[in-house]
Amino acid sequence: MTMELQKAICCHCSGRCGVLVGLADGRPASIAGDPSHPVSRGFTCKRGLAALEYFEHPGRLDVPLRRVGKRGQGRWEQVGWDEAVDDIATRLAAIRDRLGSEAVAYLAGTFHGTDQGIGVRFMHLFGSPNYGGPSTICAGPKIEAEALTYGFGPSAPDARPGETRCVLLWGHHPSASFPVQWGRILASRHAGARLVAIDPVRTDEAQAADLWLQLRPGTDAALALGLLHVMVQEGLYDRAFVERWTLGFEALRQRVAAYPPQRVAELTWLTPEQIVDCARLYASERPAALSHGSPNGMGRNALSCERALALLIALSGNLDRRGGNRLPGPPERVRTKVDFEWYEALPISQRAKQLGADRFRLPLDGYERLGQAGRRLWPGHEYVVDATYGAAAHAPSIFRAILEQQPYPVRALLVQHNNAIGCYPNAGLVRAALASPNLELLVVHELFMTPTAAYADYVLPATSWLEKSYLYVSGWNGLVVATPRAVAPQHERHSDYDLFRDLGARLGQAVCWPPTLEALWDHLLEPAGLTFGELSTRAQNWIDDAAPPERHERLDPSTGAPLGFATPSHKVELASSILAELGYDPLPGYEEPLDDPGQERDYPLLLMAGATHPAMTHQDHRQIASLRRQHPDPTVRVHPATAAELGLAEGDWAWIESPTGRIRQRVQLAERVHPRVVDAERWWYPERQGAEPELFGALESNVSVLTDDDPQRCDPAYGSWAFRLGRCRVSRAGSWR
Ligand SMILES: Nc1nc2c(c(=O)[nH]1)N[C@H]1C(S)=C(S)[C@@H](COP(=O)(O)OP(=O)(O)OC[C@H]3O[C@@H](n4cnc5c(=O)[nH]c(N)nc54)[C@H](O)[C@@H]3O)O[C@H]1N2
Ligand SMILES: Nc1nc2c(c(=O)[nH]1)N[C@H]1C(S)=C(S)[C@@H](COP(=O)(O)OP(=O)(O)OC[C@H]3O[C@@H](n4cnc5c(=O)[nH]c(N)nc54)[C@H](O)[C@@H]3O)O[C@H]1N2
Ligand code: SF4
Ligand SMILES: [Mo]
Fold first, then answer.
1. Both 482 and 382 in a single domain?
2. Ligand nearest to the CA of 37
3. Measured from the CB, is residue 16 less than 6 Å from ligand 3?
4. Is the overall model pTM greater than 0.90, yes or no?
5. 685 partner at 20 to 30 Å CA-CA among 118, 231, 543, 565?
């Protein structure tokens, strides 16, 4: 037997660690960290180490399945790939001819490989603006908020051991979500950096911190405005930078005057002293890296909160500074997926039909404005923000359009790497939309049979990351990494790219799709004078294409003036001109996240809905035995004092109820959570029946059943929903399994 080692990148989460795959006679036989990877340097977490178990899992889908019988009954027949794609293309064309391209929608989940979200290109060419996904609540709010403020986002927290003097973790749990970055933060801490954690839960990060602020969930925007208040009031900001590079300081000063520590303390459940201490520490220990997770980007304050964090970075003098928050922008010599999404192909008349855009104007009108500002600074890049983030439709509005046929009907839904039931708020409504007779065609492209796939007309088998090549072009750190696929696609599995290339070919887009994923990578690398084959097989299979820090100071050769920032004014816009033009408040503000006082009596506890678990990615990995052993049941974390009041003990099953539904999870007593808060998670049971009504238990134990999708309570400009926040009550469920 011959054994050969091949480089690959783990795509089980967006950490993108380098791995070495041992191939025995062409089959993957071992997996280990790749010490030569410039960032992960040999690290792999438990999910990475379970990658072969995942790859070889007997539940993997191998062949296309077509529904027979009623939707959701779980009866399928096997069909060939071409036959399935032929039929899907024919039906999409018929729907387009009858109702317009906008009657076809696409949902793409988070990163699982570098062809993630490639259907956006197909949609632009097909003429539909209706692609959506978790991007609106994941990195989207910070990408948008930072781009509005200083032209590109997200900035890259640059924790440098020995240089960085403070790390501020804001709603971020990197020990579970980005372990490699956590390693760097810990190394910085050991080298003397101060650590601050802002989290309702006493996480490992909070435990290691010099200062931990256990704020009320959902009040981050108020806290950020309070910190800005202290900085402005006490003159703790970088005056030279503010004078030279920012616009709107006076307006900001007036705005933050309304957020003194005493008021903010009441809103956030903190003390005024904690707020003052935090502001002083962050503002005085320079360089400081602010690293934010995704929970701040939720609900009606999403954009305001992320804008306020962007202002903290700018005012404290940490923007685009080594050891602070770097602002590399897109790579200088390599095209990115943004350049490939082909937003320009979507006719302007169709753009205006984007679902949600009547209410949330930033993804429609803001995208073009951000693009214009970006082109000046990064010639050759039509847009600097990915359309998946910058121009996505509002996913909850897609489900409502299916059910209510308002403002127009959506009749076909293509779902790729996205377990929609449980990913989006109000899972009961999502299920109703997928099961609705209004939906003529539901296609799910997946690795496994999921609760979402259970409703499909076609379930198509996808390749996982070991079966496809990888080219990652990151604006976050400018690193461009290439690896060839470790093994050829098995059975009838096809990559995300292949599905849309094949559909495109049947719908008049053939010339727009390079024949292979590798040919697409060649196209992206072309300006660097490289081919994918060359880069992916080199000993050093990566290039660092990041702009140096403080790029805004560089002189523009054509004008001789400093380049500045990629905003309409070329300055850091403390008050955003784009938001003002779109009729929104140009400054960050704060509103109560849950404006439902009537419900407080019936639902007295605050619900946190879905923290990251180190052994699992979102709803994935529940079927991987070695990982499931580490986390066998859906878990709700309850403070021991609250549990005692409710008569709950460790391991009990408890009902958790909200105005939208009820679920049951197992109680874990946790001093770490606030007594007035419970922390529950997403769940489904791959080992159970998929057919209705059981549906893998997806509606029985999934916290997303309890969250609110009402567009009125989403962020008014960008549409983010409160995916991790709500009200609930908890009671004993007795034993049931
Ligand atoms: N209540 C609550 N809701 C949340 C969150 C929360 O914390 N709480 N988090 C939100 C966030 S930040 C995100 S990013 C989303 C994540 O939501 P999703 O993106 O839906 O993530 P997963 O649950 O991991 O489901 C992804 C699916 O992709 C499949 N898959 C993996 N690789 C591939 C591939 O290469 N091709 C194809 N076609 N399929 C593949 C997997 O089998 C899996 O079923 O959830 C969001 N929703
Ligand atoms: N193991 C693992 N790693 C992952 C993923 C995964 O599912 N599993 N998913 C990947 C993806 S797509 C994403 S988006 C990232 C998410 O990465 P992170 O954002 O770092 O992780 P989370 O656990 O979702 O949330 C971070 C912290 O926010 C806290 N929190 C909850 N509500 C609030 C609030 O209202 N305010 C504040 N300040 N804090 C709050 C939680 O207690 C938690 O400790 O992780 C990525 N990496
Ligand atoms: S952190 Fe774990 S799952 Fe994420 S890329 Fe790295 S090894 Fe893979
Ligand atoms: Mo995410």
1. yes
2. 3
3. yes
4. yes
5. 118
Q: Identify the band that residue 544 occupies on the pLDDT scale cut at 50, 70 and 90.
A: confident
364 with 312, same domain: the answer is no
Say if residue 239 is in the same domain as residue 163: yes
CB distance 618 to ligand 3 below 6 Å: no
Residue 703 lies in a domain: yes
Cis status of the peptide bond prior to 586, with omega within 30 of 0: no
For atom 6 of ligand 3, the residue with the nearest CA is 17
Is the confidence at residue 336, as pLDDT, over 90?
no
Do 47 and 78 share a domain, yes or no?
Answer: no
The bound ligand whose nearest atom lies closest to the alpha carbon of 109 is 1
Is residue 519 one of the residues assigned to a domain? yes
For residues 68 and 75, is the Cβ–Cβ distance under 8 A? Answer: yes
Nearest C-alpha to atom 29 of ligand 1 is from which residue? 417
pLDDT at residue 123 greater than cutoff 90: yes
Mean pLDDT (whole number) for 453-481: 91
Mutation test residue for ligand 2: of 175, 204, 227, 612, the one with most atoms within 8 Å of CB: 612
Q: Which of 68, 166, 99 is nearest to 459 (CA)?
A: 68
Q: Domain check: are 308 and 219 in the same one? A: yes
Beta bridge partners of 88: none
Answer yes or no: do 614 and 512 share one domain.
Answer: no
Q: Is 591 domain-assigned?
A: no
Q: Would you say the CB of residue 135 lies under 6 angstroms from ligand 2?
A: no
From 522, 544, 566, the end of a domain falls on 544
Ligand 1 within 6 A of CB of 452: no
Of 266, 297, 326, the last residue of a domain is: 326
> Is the shortest distance between the CB of 351 and ligand 3 below 6 Å?
no
Domain that holds residue 27: 4-55
φ and ψ at residue 534, rounded to 5 degrees = -65, -50
Is 567 part of any domain?
Answer: no
Give the nearest ligand 2 atom to 724 CA: 32
The predicted model gives 384-412 an average pLDDT of 96
pLDDT of 474 strictly over 70: no
**Residue 736: predicted pLDDT:** 58
Distance 292 CA to ligand 4 centre (A): 12
Question: If you measure from the C-alpha of residue 351 to the centroid of ligand 2, how many angstroms do you get, rounded to a whole number?
Answer: 32
- State the distance from the centre of ligand 4 to the C-alpha of 561, rounded, in angstroms: 39
Q: Which one, of 340, 324, 338, lies nearest residue 150 by Cα?
A: 324
Confidence band for 186, pLDDT divided at 50, 70 and 90: very high
Asked if 527 and 496 touch (Cβ cutoff 8 Å), the reply is no
Ligand 1 nearest atom to the CA of residue 420, by list position: 20
Least reliable range by pLDDT among 194-198, 216-220, 388-392, 592-596: 592-596
Number of domains in the chain: 4
Where are the extended beta strands (E) located within 48-123?
65-67, 76-78, 104-108
Number of residues that this document lists for the chain = 737
* Closest among 420, 464, 431 to 618, alpha carbons compared: 420
- In the predicted model, what is the mean pLDDT of residues 187-212? 97
- 111 and 185 part of one domain: no
- How far apart, in Å, are the Cα atoms of 14 and each of 113, 174, 722? 9, 12, 22
Q: What is the CATH number of the domain that holds 537?
A: 3.40.50.740
